[in-house]
Every structure is written in C-alpha cells, then in structure tokens.
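Quick one:
INPUT:
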C-alpha cells in the first residue's frame, strides 16, 4: 500500500506547487471513496516531522518559493534532529 501511495503522490505532483503532504481516504460501506488531500496545511501525524524530512520533500517534489507555506519555511529554518 505504501508503494501505491508513493506512486499516487508522484503522479499528482504539479510543477511549481509540489504534491500533497497528507491524504485521508475514507471508504464507505456503499463503496464510495472520499479523498481529502492536503497541499498546504501542516499535517498532524501525531509526531513532529524533522526539518530534514521537510527539506527532502521539497527536493523530491519542488515548489516555487511562494507555494511553500510559512509554517514549512519556518520548520526548515529551525532545523533540528533529522
């Protein structure tokens, strides 16, 4: 499943705006699939993502400077454990 999500993330990459940071998929009993993708809000994974990992995300899925949210820029500038 992780490989499939990685492929989906890469396929949805947009030049200059990158791709989603988090994704919630909800499958109803009737078979309806609802997808809520997040391109700009800080994801709540229940743990802090390292500045290094956010830097790697930008290397893999580049964004124009104006498409990188302020919270993301601040997290990278803070540095910290990798």
């Amino acid at each position: 499943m992780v490989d499939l999500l990685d492929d989906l993330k890469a396929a949805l990459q947009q030049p200059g705006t990158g791709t989603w940071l988090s994704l919630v998929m909800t499958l109803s009993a009737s078979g309806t699939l609802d997808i809520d993708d997040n391109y700009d809000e800080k994801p709540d994974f229940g743990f802090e993502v390292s500045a290094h990992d956010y830097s790697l995300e930008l290397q893999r899925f580049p964004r124009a400077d104006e498409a990188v949210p302020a919270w993301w820029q601040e997290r990278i500038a803070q540095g910290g454990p990798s």
